[in-house]
Amino acid sequence: MRACITLATVLASAMAFAEDPKAKSAQPAEQESRFLSKIRQVSFGLPRAGEGYFSPDGQWIVYQAYPVGYPFYQIYVQRLDERTPRRVSPGRGRTTCSFFSMDGKSILFASGHTDPDTEQTELKARELAAQGGRRRYQWDFDRHMDIYVCDFNGTGLRRLTDAPGYDAEGSYSSDGRHIVFTSTRDGDPDLYIMRADGSHVRQLTNTDGYDGGPFFSPDNRWVIFRSDRKKEHMLQLYAISVDGKHEVQLTDNLNQVNWCPYFHPSGKYLIWSGADYARGPRGATFNLFTMEISSSADSFSGGKVTQITFDKSADVLPVFSPDGTRLMWTSTRTEGGSSQLWIADWLRAKSKPASSTK
Question: Residues 82-137: pLDDT tens digits?
C-alpha cells in the first residue's frame, strides 16, 4: 500500500497567489516584466504548435504542430535561431508528447499511426473541422497510441510499448535510464515507469481518474503529475516518489484547473498553468504560476505560489531550458489567436541544478 501524504495547506481555498498589491493595477506586460524579458514567438509557418521541449544543449526544440492541411499533430524539431521546422514523426495519425533523449541523439514521442482505420479517423476529423471551423483543443485517449523513439533526423523509428490501450505522455529521467508515462493498459489512465529501452514496466499509480503529464524531479526521486481523481476534469497537481510509497497533493481547489507542472532544473520550484473555473470553462484564462518546493527521499512539500503571466490569452505547457535561464510555453497571444510557442529569458536568480541520483 502506498503511504499517501496529503499536503494540508499549500493553497488557500481561493488560491491566494503571492502577488504584489501594486501589480494588480498594472498592465499585463508590466506585471510579467518582473519575471520575464525578451518575450518572443519561436514557432512559425504551421497552423498551430505547442508543447515544446529543449534539447540538452538548449539549441534545439522539439514540439507538436498541425501540418498544413492535416487534422492531427505531428512532431517537429527546430533550431532556436531558425524558423524552419523539420518533421520527425511518421506523418499520419495522432502524434503527441515529444521529448529529447538526454544525449540529444534521439527523440521520444507517442503516435497512433498504426491505427488500421487511419483514413477513416482522418476523414472524421476533417468533417468535424469543416462543420465547426477550427477545432478546439481536446485530448483523445487513442487506443492505438504507443510510445516510440527515433533518431534525431527522424529515421530508425523504434516502438517501446505495445500493450493494449493508450500509451503516451512520456519523458526521461535526468540520467536517461528511465521513462515515466501514462497508460490505460489496466482500463484507467495511470502512471508507469519503464527502462529507456521499454523493458521492466512497473505501475506507479493505481487510482480511479486520470493521472498524467508526469515528469521526474531533477534528482530522479519524485514524479510530478496532474490528476482529476477528486473531480472529473478538475485537474490538480500531485507528486509521488519513484518507488510509489509516498504521495503528496500539491493543489486542492476544485474551482481551479491546475495542470502541466514542470520542474526548474534547480529542483527548488516548479511551474504550471492554472485557471479559475468557478464560473465554468467559458472565459477562464490560463496563466502560469510557480510553487516553491522542498523534498528529500521520503518527503515532498510545496510552499509559496507566485503568478508569472497575466495576459488575457491562454498560457500553458511551460518548460525551462536545461540551464534554467529560459522559459518556453504555449500561448495564444499571437496576433491571430492561434497557439504557438513562445520563449523568454527567466529573470529569477540562477540556482545550481540539482545533481542526478545514479
Answer: 999 999 999 999 999 999 999 999 999 999 999 999 898 889 888 877 776 444 44
Report the half-sphere exposure of 22 (CA within 13 A, side-chain side): 2
Fold of the domain built from segment(s) 3-346: Neuraminidase (2.120.10)
pLDDT (tens digit per residue) in 171-204 = 999 999 999 999 999 999 999 999 999 999 999 9
Beta-carbon contacts of 203 under 8 Å, excluding residues fewer than 6 positions away, are: 186, 190, 191, 192, 244
The CA distances from residue 168 to 69, 89, 148, 309, in Å, are 24, 14, 9, 28
- CA-nearest of 157, 179, 354 to 269 is 354
130 forms beta bridges with: none
- Nearest by Cα to 179 from 156, 199, 205, 165: 199
So where are the chain's domains?
Answer: 3-346
Q: What are the tens digits of pLDDT across the range 228-269?
A: 999 999 999 999 999 999 999 999 999 999 999 999 999 999
Q: Return the HEC string of the chain.
A: CCEEEECCCCCCCCCCCCCCHHHHHCCHHHHHCCCEEEEEECCCCCCEEEEEEECCCCCEEEEEEECCCCCCCEEEEEECCCCCCEECCCCCCCEEEEEECCCCCEEEEEECCCCCCHHHHHHHHHHHHHHHCCCCCCCCCCCCCEEEEEECCCCCCEECCCCCCCEEEEEECCCCCEEEEEECCCCCCEEEEEECCCCCCEECCCCCCCEEEEEECCCCCEEEEEECCCCCCCCEEEEEECCCCEEEECCCCCCEEEEEEEECCCCCEEEEEEEECCCCCCCCCCEEEEEEEEECCCCEEEEEEEECCCCCCCEEEEEECCCCCEEEEEECCCCCCCCEEEEEEECCCCCCCCCCCC
Q: Which amino acid is located at 87 in the chain?
A: R
- The residue behind cell 510510445 is 147
Pairing of strands 236-241, 246-249: antiparallel
Angle, alpha carbons 33-41-311 (nearest 5°): 45
Specify which of 15-29, 138-152, 320-334 reaches the highest per-range mean pLDDT. 320-334
